[in-house]
Amino acid sequence: MSTFHVLLVWALVQAIPFLAVSILLSDCAYPSGYGDGSGNCVGVADVSLKPQRREADENENIFDITHKFTPHTPVGDSTEGIGQFLTLLTSMKNGSDYNFSEMKLPVHSGTHVDAPGHMYDNYFDEGYDVDTLDLRVLNGPALLIDVPRDKNITAEVMKSLNIPKGVRRVLFRTLNTDRRLMYKKEFDTSYVGFMKDGAQWLVDNTDIKLVGIDYLSVAAFADLIPSHLVLLRGRDIILVEGLKLDDVQPGIYSVHCLPLRLVGAEGSPIRCILIKELKAISRKSLRLDGRVSAEGWVQDIIFIEGLKLDDIPTGLYSVPLRLVGEGGSPIRCILIK
C-alpha cells in the first residue's frame, strides 16, 4: 500500500467520530435560542447544556397561556396542590437504558378543560367526554379582554364589556391574574368567576362558544354549581380554566387549545397557546417555491373563520403538556388543512 493510501485510511479513521456526531445531531429539536444558545445542537457530554423555558417566542408572536404542572399546581379543595404526580419507574442512574415515568394527574388541575359530563350525570353516562369536544371551537380567533377588577362576572358586568355579536371565543382576564392565584398551591375560594346571572346573560345574548378564565373554575365559588349548569347545559360551550394570562396584551389572537383524548373523562389537562396578529399578508404570498409560509396562513386563520378548510394551507399543531422535570409527555396533534 502506498504512502498516499495509508494517509487516506488514517484520515478517514480520524474523521469517523466527527461524522458520527454530525449524523446524530443533524436534525436539531432545539432551534435558535435553545440548547447552548447559539442555535447549534449540543451533545450529551456538554456540561453547559441548560434548557430554556419560554412563555413566548423571541418575536412575541406566540404566547404560552398554559401553567406548568409541578407538585404545587393548585387543584380544588386542596391546600397542598396536586402533590407528586410523576414517578420515575425506570432510571438510567439505576442502570436502565432509558428514563421512563408514570403520571397520575387530577383532570381538573392546572390549565384544563371541562366536558359536559362534568356537571351533568346523564351527559356523563351518554359519553359526552373530552374526546367529544369540538376542535373547531378550541381553535380559532379569540378575544382577550380585561374584566372589572372589583367584582364577579354578573349580567351587569357582561353588558358593560360590549362583546360584539359573532365573537365565538373569549378569554376573561380578572383579578385572579393580578393576585397570581394560579401560582399558589392553596385553593382560594375568593377567586373571581361567573355568577349564575352572568352565565345566563352570556348564553342568551352572545355567540360565545369558548369561555376561558384565569383560575380553576369559570364559576364563582358562591355560584359554583348553578353557573356551570347554565354554561354546560347546551353542550355547545367549552370551558377552559386555569389560563395563564399575565404578560399578554388584550386584543385579538388565534387561540389553539388541545386536550388529551381521554375517552370517558369529564375533564382533561390542556395546552393552550395564543398566536397574535402578524402583518397583513396576501394569499399569493403564502407560497414560495412550493412551500408554505406558516406565519402567513396562521394570520389568515385569525380573520377568516368561515373559510372552507380546503382553502387554507395545511399546518400541524403538536401540543404536549407542560410537565416540568419530565422527559416525555402525552401530546395532542391536529392538522389544519
TrEMBL record:
From which residue to which does the signal peptide run?
A: 1-15
Predominant location category? secreted
- Recite the lineage of the species: Eukaryota, Viridiplantae, Streptophyta, Embryophyta, Tracheophyta
**Recorded family membership:** Belongs to the Cyclase 1 superfamily.
Question: Which Gene Ontology molecular function entries are recorded, alphabetically?
Answer: arylformamidase activity
**Taxonomic superkingdom:** Eukaryota
Entry's InterPro entries? KFase/CYL (IPR007325), KFase_sf (IPR037175)
> What does the UniProt entry say about where the protein is found?
Secreted, Extracellular space, Extracellular matrix
GO terms under biological process: L-tryptophan catabolic process to kynurenine
Protein known as: Cyclase-like protein 2
Keywords, in A-Z order: Extracellular matrix, Secreted, Signal
